[in-house]
TrEMBL record:
Belongs to the purine/pyrimidine phosphoribosyltransferase family. One of its GO terms (molecular function) is nucleotide binding. Pathway: Purine metabolism; GMP biosynthesis via salvage pathway; GMP from guanine: step 1/1; Purine metabolism; IMP biosynthesis via salvage pathway; IMP from hypoxanthine: step 1/1. The keyword Glycosyltransferase applies. It is found in: Cytoplasm. The lineage of its organism: Bacteria, Bacillati, Bacillota, Bacilli, Lactobacillales. It comes from Pseudolactococcus paracarnosus. Purine salvage pathway enzyme that catalyzes the transfer of the ribosyl-5-phosphate group from 5-phospho-alpha-D-ribose 1-diphosphate (PRPP) to the N9 position of the 6-oxopurines hypoxanthine and guanine to form the corresponding ribonucleotides IMP (inosine 5'-monophosphate) and GMP (guanosine 5'-monophosphate), with the release of PPi. Residues 16-160 form the Phosphoribosyltransferase domain. Its EC number is 2.4.2.8. This is Hypoxanthine phosphoribosyltransferase. It catalyses: IMP + diphosphate = hypoxanthine + 5-phospho-alpha-D-ribose 1-diphosphate; GMP + diphosphate = guanine + 5-phospho-alpha-D-ribose 1-diphosphate. Pfam families: Pribosyltran (PF00156).
Length: 182
């Protein structure tokens, strides 16, 4: 079972659900009558996007983008690549980007600049996890679920080599998992 591979749970399922409800209520007030476009950045944001959007009690639309800056393992290539673009025009729209994590900040800086360049009316960022110690560019999220230390995290969308996204909590893997997979 997957639980045997986890050294430590940092954020429980209950904490994630409660936080999603809290941020959902704030977004409900902030975006009432604005019909924002909620943009999930695949694949990592899928569980949080599902949890958060059902807590927003006003009209929203949804779209999806795939960008990638990590190519396996635990290290970053530093380069952000667009793999799948939005289907929807963002011109004149209020946009809410939903992410699982901000680390170096490169992905979100790229995305925010791209959407503003396309004349979005506003671009706000919601992230489940922030790792502020990892930042190499200047960007902050407008809403942060949990600010966590600079360790490699898995679960609730966060993967190690595409595995562990389906864990219902956020944790750290035991060392032996890296030894067997590398
Ligand atoms: O702040 P940064 O250092 O740019 O890192 C954050 C990005 O890295 C992860 O995506 P990844 O490219 O691993 O794709 P995934 O969502 O499919 O796991 C995560 O989902 C963020 O998009
Ligand atoms: N899975 C995972 N992806 C990341 N991308 C940036 N930081 C992390 C992390 O801690 N875990």
């Amino acid at each position: 079972m997957l639980e045997k591979t986890i050294k430590k749970v940092l954020v429980t399922e209950e904490e994630i659900c409660a936080k999603s409800r809290e941020i959902g209520q704030i977004l409900t007030q902030e975006y009432k009558d604005k019909n924002p476009l909620m943009v999930a950045i695949l694949k990592g944001s899928v569980p949080f996007f599902a949890e958060l959007t059902k807590r927003i009690d006003t009209h929203i639309e949804m779209d999806f983008m795939v960008v990638s800056s990590y190519h396996g393992g635990t290290s970053s290539s530093g380069e952000v690549k667009m793999i799948k673009d939005l289907d929807t025009s963002v011109e004149g729209r209020d946009i809410v980007i939903v992410e699982d994590i901000i680390d170096t900040g490169r992905t979100l800086l790229y995305l925010k600049q791209l959407l503003l360049h396309r004349k979005a009316k506003s671009v706000k960022i919601v992230t489940l996890v922030d790792k502020p110690e990892g930042r190499v560019v200047e960007i902050e999220a407008d809403y942060v679920g949990f600010s966590l230390p600079n360790e490699f995290l898995v679960g609730f969308g966060l993967d190690y080599d595409e595995h562990f996204r389906n864990l219902p909590y956020i944790g750290i893997l035991k060392e032996e998992v890296y030894q067997t997979k590398d």
